[in-house]
Amino acid sequence: MRILVTGSAGHLGEALMRTLRESEHEPIGIDVLDSPFTDRHGSIVDRAFVRDAMRGVDAVLHAATLHKPHVATHRRQDFIDVNLTGTLNLLEAATEARAGAFVFTSTTSAFGRALTPPRDEPAAWLTEDVAPVPKNIYGVTKVAAENLCELAHRDSGMPCLVLRTSRFFPEEDDLPAVRDAREDANNKANEFLYRRVDIEDVVDAHLLALAKAREIGFARYIVSATTPFTRVDLAALRADAPSVVRRHVPAYADEYARRGWTMFESIDRVYDNARARAELGWRPRVDFARVIERLRETDDIRSPMAQAVGAKGYHRAP
User: Phi and psi dihedrals of 167, rounded to 5?
Assistant: First the structure.
């Protein structure tokens, strides 16, 4: 199968290209940046470039995007151009090429203000049924692009699946208070409890979505590491997260103590990946318990793919 991968110079794009190049498929990577995984250099905003790149393509993995950190450095119009117009260009070209599947990489950031309940309420339990309330131009354009995918499916019948991925980037947190409170690996390990996913598992979800797209037609899925928590834990997570974690993953306490690490005192939301596991057959391999095992075995929470892709940053220059 000939698969067009957008954003091939980015974290996920590179991981997809690395995996697909080792498979029976024929991947074609496109990006505005040159890289060892970019086959064609160009922008998805350029309709002619997109139409030409789409020739003979059987499926699309659309990972190209302006990200949340770009909110501080790019105009709102840039987000409209790349995240919205670029997605529309790809959808229309894919429809014309009679592509058999279109998988759009969205984000759990799309939930926006729905993520954080008032201080005196339990943590939020996030499923695909929660209505997004975007809080910045990034979220607005990702939700709008999801809706374009749904419209394209309704109008043309082209199978379109949306994957709302949680954090998988290796860069430090964009909030100074979070960065300063703990070392980076400690923060990321904590996040596997409720808001992070390993990039190898994200790749698996995308490939499963390609395989299942024709059967499903259109759907949105949360792609996040499997949480050990249940809805019963939500009030306690907000008030005393360490005690809840000790109950579910008792092995963490000794490993954290050995490293001088600490758990977040409060957790305000939990992403539920049950629908992706049930409908896509997705089986994420990395959860918080596996992270603790990795720390004992290798002293590194990153998977081999995460280590190979490395950190790219979000800008060409600081």
Answer: -65, 130
Q: CA nearest 146: which of 129, 158, 164?
A: 164
Which letter does DSSP use for residue 172 in this model? P
What is the C-alpha separation between 83 and 143, in angstroms, rounded? 10
For residue 162, give the 3-state DSSP assignment.
strand
pLDDT tens, position by position, 149-184: 999 999 999 999 999 999 999 888 877 888 888 999
Calculate the CA 151 to chain-centre distance.
22
- Collapse the DSSP code of 52 into the 3-class scheme (helix H, G, I; strand E, B; otherwise coil) and give the result: helix
Selection from 75, 70, 48, 268 nearest residue 174 by Cα: 70
Residue 135 in tokens = 């809080």
pTM: 0.95
Burial status of residue 108 (CB atoms within 10 A of its CB: 0-12, 13-18, 19 or more): buried
Q: Which residue ranges make up each domain of the chain?
A: 2-309
Sign of the C-alpha dihedral computed for residues 86, 59, 49 and 153 taken in this order = negative
Coil, helix or strand at residue 110: helix
**Structure tokens given for 109:** 């950031």
What homologous superfamily does CATH list for 2-309? NAD(P)-binding Rossmann-like Domain (3.40.50.720)
The Cα 53–Cα 40 span in angstroms is 8
- CB-based burial label for 318 (10 Å; 0-12, 13-18, 19+): exposed
In the numeric block, the tokens 């840039």 are attached to 78
Q: Among candidates 18, 19, 49, 48, which has minimal Cα distance to 31?
A: 49
